[in-house]
Structures are given as C-alpha cells and as structure tokens.
Amino acid sequence: MGSTEDTDNNERKMRIRQFFNAMEIQSIDPLWSNSLKPGIEKLLSGFYNEPNFDELYRAAYTVVLHRHGQKLYENTRELILEHLVEKVRPKLAGLSSTEFLVTLKQTWDSYEKSMDMIRCILMYMDRVYVLEQKLEPVYDLGLTLFRENIILFSTTREYFNNALREMMTREQHGEILDRTTINDISLMLTKLNINKADFYNEDLQTWCLQ
C-alpha cells in the first residue's frame, strides 16, 4: 500500500517538475493566477491545510529563478493589502468593546500564522530577490501592512481606544474583568513596534499597565 502511495507521489512531483521545466517563463501571470494567488488567499483566510506547499514553493522558486522577483513581491504585497482592507477592516467594524478586542486578538493570531506560512512559501524570494534589493522580508512586510492599515487606521484606532475606555469604566465601577485579552493586545502592539504612549491616551496606558 505504501509503495503505491510513494509511486503516486513521485509521479505527481515529476509532473510538477516537468511542467515547470517545460515552461518558458516570460511572465509571472500563469503561475501567479493559477497557483500562488489562490494558495496565498487560502492561507490569509485561515485554510492552512488546503494549499499544496510543495507546489507553491516550487512555483515561487521558478518565478524568482526566471528573474520575476519584483513582480512576485509586488503582487504579494498588493494581495495582502487587499485582504486587510476588504476583509479584516469590515470584520472589526460595529462590534461591542469586548467583541472588538477579542476579535482583534483572534484576527491578529490568525494573520500572524498566515504570514509565517507565506514566508515559508516565498523563502527563496526572501533569500535572493529581497536580500539583493534590500527590501523588507515577506513576514516583516506583513507586519508593516497590518500595523499601517489595521492598527493605525483611524477607525480601528478609535474603536480600540473606545473599547479600552469602556472596559476601564466598568472596572472602576467594580466589575471584575479578564485582562488576558488586554495583555495579549499589549504584546501585539509591542511585536508591531507601536509606541503605546503615542497610540492611546495616558490614562488608558496607565490603566493597561496595572
């Protein structure tokens, strides 16, 4: 049984290699549209087990090997940005204070895991094109985009401060709150290299550090 499965896997990998070797890579478009883009979209959406990592890595490797690293980097950046603006921002809108903070933390955890997997797929691009051009590695690029387009986005920042202020008021009135999420959010801000003193008011910062 195992021998048959091994044979099938080897034949599949051989077909993948033959497909890429036979291609004359004049454009990134076929590999991007048919393989890399849908694979990265699935990862960003939290479907971690669906993409074929071997095929995605080989596709990215082939693209960079044929000197299309710039286009791959730009396409990846645009795809991540589109995900943040069109899917993450609406998910955070209109929530209660508690729901907002919990959803923000869950969204961040999922996004960070996605970026870690995307980094693995695009490892060859990081090691060759990104290094040569002195650009942000893919994982760091993802953190920058999340910081600038989610955390520092004016509406999100307003929700964030309002949520903390509401929770602070509830605690001051004697309600016992679970500070786990608040502590996790504080760690997220640190990882995103956000100065907490610049991000929220002094009274909120003091309360969060209690």
UniProtKB/TrEMBL annotation:
One of its GO terms (biological process) is ubiquitin-dependent protein catabolic process. Residues 35-206 form the Cullin N-terminal domain. One of its GO terms (molecular function) is ubiquitin protein ligase binding. Transmembrane segments: none annotated. Belongs to the cullin family. This is Cullin N-terminal domain-containing protein. It comes from Adineta steineri. The lineage of its organism: Eukaryota, Metazoa, Spiralia, Gnathifera, Rotifera.
